[in-house]
Amino acid sequence: MNQHSCRCDISPDLIDNNPVTPLYDFDNPIYLAEEEDEEDCELPGELARLLKQEEKVIQPHEEPIEMVNLGTDEVQKEVKIGAALEESVKSRLVVLLKEYVDIFAWSYQDMPGLDTDIVVHKLPLRTDCPPVKQKLRRTRPDMAMKIKEEVQKQWDVGFLAVTNYPPWS
Fold first, then answer.
1. What are the tens digits of pLDDT across the range 43-66?
2. d(Cα 21, Cα 74) in Å, to the nearest integer?
3. pTM (predicted TM-score)
4. Gene3D superfamilies this protein is in (predicted)?
């Protein structure tokens, strides 16, 4: 009868202290443990570490936020700040933000003359690959109106320009 050992002689301390460099026991592959009884077999250190690591769930950091209006009731300029801040820090932050309220871009009109060396969108077409016209993708009517409004706003302030590409095949 052919017996295989699924025991690994790797120190668990070595694995825990160096999670970046996995250690493998190529002489005793993990899949050989399937042939033996589960009660008799201990998991190799590497597999145990991988299973333990897989169980960890990384949750996004969610901090309560508070909306603060830096403008007036008629012209609202809202920013979000952490609600967990101490009151003294929060009040100093709001005073600072109100002092520099003119630096923020609240609309497209507040961003005249964006440098196209920094912000530009182009279609990277290759001459050896002819473009192929795709069918029109429909959007929901409410989304289509919002898209049209955004495009019109960007067109009005000069963010968009018409570019002539070769005709589509």
1. 677 778 888 887 777 777 788 899
2. 59
3. 0.42
4. HIV Type 1 Reverse Transcriptase, subunit A, domain 1 (3.10.10.10)
